Amino acid sequence: MKNLNAIGLDKSKSKELAEKINILLANYSIFYQNTRGYHWNIKGQKFFELHLKFEELYTDLLLKIDEVAERILTLGHTPLHNYSTYKQTSLIAESTEVSDGIKAVENILESFKITITLQREILNLSAETEDEGTNALMSDYIRAQEKLVWMYSAFLTT
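Request: output the structure for the sequence above.
Response:
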């Protein structure tokens, strides 16, 4: 029992899982800030449509950031919390192109590709760790984000 954390999971496996979830947290944080920039600075014919979609997305990302950080805490570890670390850790780069709707949607799709891939890795690791809580969380995220990928991709074909 000494090798189990407070929720009954192996401590070393939980540590590895928390480290991987911290990478996801960093990516979500940069993704969130990029999306807020798109929302604030979007221009052009699709302004009204994209302004609202970007707000929906960054609001959802903010909830996910909180859930992911709390999951790390539940596993008995500390979530990353500063942007300098997020920038070093994230696979998603800070966006500098924030007013062009097409480029913003393309960047969002690339960010989803990165986060979905990370979530699948976490899903596999959480299954090995027998961590149903993390597993369910990642599964829910993947399902919802795959639908968003379809929708944003459809937007680009118009």
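The chain has five helices and no strands.
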